[in-house]
Amino acid sequence: MYVLGIETSCDETGVAVYHPERGLLAQQLFSQVETHAVYGGVVPELASRDHVRKLIPLLRRVLAEAGLRRVDGIAYTAGPGLIGALLVGAAVARSLAWSWRVPAVAVHHMEGHLLAPQLEPDPPPFPFVALLVSGGHTQLVRVEGIGRYQILGESLDDAAGEAFDKVAKMLGLGYPGGPELARLAEEGRAHRFDFPRPMIDRPDLDFSFSGLKTHTLVTLAGSAGTRQDKADIAAAFQEAVVDTLVVKSRRALEATGLTRLVVAGGVSANRRMREKFRQMARAHGYRVYFPRLEFCGDNGAMIAYAGCQRLLAGQTEPPEIRVHPRWPLGALVPPEG
C-alpha cells in the first residue's frame, strides 16, 4: 500500500510517500520560517496562504520522486493545530481521495511525532514510554500500540518548547527562538546561575515551566545584560528544563516497569537533551530512542507512516472534511476500535 502523507498543522508544509515494505520513498518539506521571522512568531493567516501556494507543487514533486501517478491511501494531519492551516491539508487530501477513489484517514499530529522513531532502521518495539516535547505539548505517554495511549503526565502551563521560545525573546534572540537559545547556551556556563527544577519534588509526572520564565526574567534583570550574561542564563535555563524532563521520564519508566523510552517532537532535536537522556539510559539500563533530526520537527513522513498503520489495520472514515484544532491524544483509539 502506497500512502501519501500531508502535514499542514502550523508553519511547515510536509508531503511524503510511505510503503510498509519499501519504507519511505519520497518526502518534501517547505518551511515558512523566513515568512514569520519578521513578526517574531507564526501568523495563522499567512501560514494558511503559504500552504495553499506550496502544497500542490510539493505533491507533484513527491509523486514524481516516488515514480507514482497515484497512491492507495492518503493520510493527513487533522489536528491539533491552526484551524486554517489544518483545513488546507484536509481539503486537498479529501479531494484527492475522492478523485482517486482511495481511502483517506485523519491523523493526530502528536501520534505522528510519537511514531516518528518507527521510521528508523532499528525502531522501538511496543510497549514503551514516550516523552513528547514540542512547542505546544509536553507529555509523558505509555504506549502499548497504535492508538493505545495512556497519558501519564503533561505540562500544567507552558510546553517546554513554548518556554524555550519565550525565554529566547527575553534574551533578544531571533525566531525561531528555541534553536537560537540552544546555540547561545553552548557559549554559557550553566553553573553560574542557580535555576530551580520545577515540580521534581512532587511524586506525579506533570510538568510546569512558567515559573522558569519568571526566574529567567528576574535573573536577566539583575545582570549586566552582556552577551556572556545572556549565554550563562541560556545555559542555566536549558539545563533546568532538560534535567526536569530527564527526572520525570525516569520516574515514568520506574512507575511503568518499562525499559524503553522514546523522546520525540521538535524539542527532541536539542543536542544537550539528547546527551543527558543517553547518560540517564546508560546509567540505569534503559534504552532511549530519538527520531533522526529531519523527523523531529513537523514533516509528512511521520503522518504517512501513522496513517499507513491505521489504514492497514482497516480504519475507515466517512468522506468529510473535518479538523480538530484541539484534540487530546488520550482520546485516540486503536484502529480496530
Automatic annotation (TrEMBL):
The protein's required cofactor(s) are namely: Fe(2+)
Q: Where on this chain does Fe cation bind? A: 109, 113, 298
Instruction: Using the record's annotation, list all stretches that form the Gcp-like domain.
Output: 24-305
List the CDD domains: ASKHA_NBD_TsaD_bac
Metal-binding keyword on record: yes
Query: What HAMAP family has UniProt attached to this entry?
Result: TsaD
The protein here is known as tRNA N6-adenosine threonylcarbamoyltransferase
What is the native source organism of this protein? Answer: Candidatus Methylocalor cossyra
